[in-house]
Structures are given as structure tokens and as C-alpha cells.
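Researcher: Please predict.
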Amino acid sequence: MSITAGLFYLFSAVLLFAAFRVITARNPVHAALFLVLTFFQAAMIWMLLKAEFLSITLVLVYVGAVMVLFLFVVMMLDIDVEDMRVGFWKHFPLAALVGVVIALEMAAVLMGGFRVVDEPSVAAAAVPGATQLSNTKLLGKLLYTQYLYPLEVAAAILLVAMFAAIALTLRARKDSKYVSPGDQVRVKARDRMTVVKMAATQPAVAEPVAAPTQAETKA
């Protein structure tokens, strides 16, 4: 057995164990950490297949961004684990049957690819001198030469989506009483209170003075 095959079996075993612990761990934080371990093992398998771009992208996007956000949400929310597990064993047989069917379908589709001994050859006809380039450089050349216009269209769509998300978030809500902090800082005293002089509607009546009592006279 070669070193590459040994590393493949090692990473695959750790990946399967971590994926199993994701669905069996009682603590949601522990399940999320096992999912991070699963992503790392999958990235190592991609690296063994000489797909370094996919490996780095998996670590940066899923582990560095998605899982950090997921962990933050899980640790900030007060999740009742016991309520989440109500009815788990009731639906377990159906879920296990669906999982077995999916696993068999994936095995039937991928079984032919597991028998391939030689490394898959890259179609280098689109890029001159591509046989001397790495996987990442070849992908970059293809993106910015043959697929330049689709890449620009996708970038424009993502930019419009980002602006739309920001606009929807910052729009003024009619059901909330919102005051701009900038307006509160720039306000002056004369803007807060206005003194209005009004004429009296009826003359003031003098109150009668009460006569002193006998006790007050003796004093």
C-alpha cells in the first residue's frame, strides 16, 4: 500500500467518524465542531486528488465563514436539546431507510470512478502550455480567458444582489419609532422647547385672607 492510499483511508475513516458524531452528539456546539473536522478531512482528500483549489476553498468558505457564523448563532441561542429530540426514534426507521437508499445510489454511480487507476487528464487544448501549469493556475486561465464574460455576468449579478440586500436592510420601517442618532446629536435647546406667550382668558381673582383664630391671637 502506498503512502497516498494510506492517507486516503486515514482521512476517510476520520471523516466518517466525524460525520457520524455530527448527527449523534447531544451538544449542538460539539456537533458543529465535529462538522468542522469533517470539512477539514474532506479538504485533505481533495488535496490528495490534486485539487488544491477546491481544498482551499472548502476550508476558507465553509470552515472560515459558514461554520464560524453557525457556531456564533448556536452559542448565542438558548436551544433546548431535549425538545429537539422528541420523536427522534419514532422517525428513525424511515430516516435510516432513506439514508441507505441514498448511499446505495451514490455507490452505484461512483463505483465506476473508484476503479480508475490513472489520474484524470486535464483538457489542455483550451489553454496553450497548460500541461506545465498547476490546477489552480489552469482554472484561473480558463476563467479569465474562455469564461471571462460568464464570470463578469455572475459578478454583476452578485453585486446587484449585495446592494439589494443592503437596501432592504436599511429601509425605513413604518411600524417602528426610529430616530437618527445624528439628528439627536445635532439638536439644540431651542429646538426641543418653544415658549409661547398667551393672553389671560379671564382676570385673576384674589383669594380672601382668612381671619386669625383665637389661638393665634393669644399667641
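Model: The mean pLDDT is 78.
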